[in-house]
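Why do we care about 3D structure at all? Because function follows from shape, and shape follows, mostly, from sequence. That is the central idea of this module. The next example makes it concrete: a single protein chain, its amino acid sequence, and then its structure expressed as tokens.
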Amino acid sequence: MDRSADVFQNRLREIRRLRDVGIDTRVLVRNVINGLPPAQQQAIELAFFRGMSQREIAAKTNTPLGTVKTRLELGLKKIYDGLKELKDEL
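And the structure:
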């Protein structure tokens, strides 16, 4: 397992702990996002919290469009997997 996967798994353990003490779902989702690698986290935040298009994100971050698309795809998959894992434990 690579370092980013270890960090993400540690974040999921912390999220489970927060959930177990009754923390709000929004806080759990934010913690999943905060567990992403920084580049994926930035892409997710710009796209979904600031409403930027993929092209706008590419221009703002001086990153190729294909890289932005990959970061969003990987980030969303990790968010989905993390939340699915939490849901399955309920």
